Give the backbone structure.
Amino acid sequence: MTGFRLGYVPGVTPAKWVRIWAERLPRVPLELIQVSAADAPELVRRGEADAVLLRLPIDRTGLHAIPLYVEQTVVVVPKDHLITAADEITVDDLSDELMLHAQDDVLDWERPPGRVIEERPVRTGDAVELVAMGTGLLVVPQSLARLHHRKDLTYRPVSGVPESQVALSWAEADETSELVEHFIGIVRGRTMNSTRGPAPKTKTVKPKKQIPDRSRQKPRRRR
C-alpha cells in the first residue's frame, strides 16, 4: 500500500484518528496537509489529498461528504468585557455590539448580528487580533477560538446563531479506494474487525483426493 494523504482545515484536530490509523495500519504512512477552508474541496478534486476534514456547507460537485459532528459557536471577547459575566449568551445580547466579520468566516450566514464593522479582516487570526485591540467582537466555531487563544481574550457560547458541521470529504469515483474506506471506518468509530476495507485473502484449499483403502477390499476370485 502507498501512503494516505489527509487534508484538514484550521481548528479541526485529527490527532485521535491519526493515532488509531497508526495502530491499525502501522506500515501505511499518513501525511497531514493543512489547508484553508476555501481551498479544502479543491484539494481532493485535484487529487492532492485522498480525503479532507472540512466544514459544511460546501459545493459537493464531484465530492462525497459524510457529516461527523457539530461545533459549538462562541463569541470571542476581551476578558474584562461585560459579556463574560454570563456563562452563555443569546444572539440578542450582541445586538448593540460592534462586530467583526472575517473574510474567511466559516459560518453559514450573510453577516453576524450586531453593528457589523464594514472593513472585514482577511483572516480569522487577524480578526482575533482586532478583538484584543478592543475594535469589536467575533463569532466563530469554538475550535477556532481555541486555535487563536490569547491570554487577554476569552469566549462564551452563543445560542440562536448558525453552527458549523465538520465532515469528511473525498472525490467521487467508480469505487472508493481501500485506504479511504479504512479511514471512513475509523472516523465512524468502527472497530478493527468491522472497519470496511478489503476482506483478508484466504487461500482456497482443494480437498485431498481420497485414496481407497485397499486393505479392506475383498480379493477378487480368479476364474
About this structure: The two ends are 70 Å apart (CA to CA). The mean pLDDT is 89. The helical segments are 15-24, 40-45, 124-132, 142-147, 178-187.
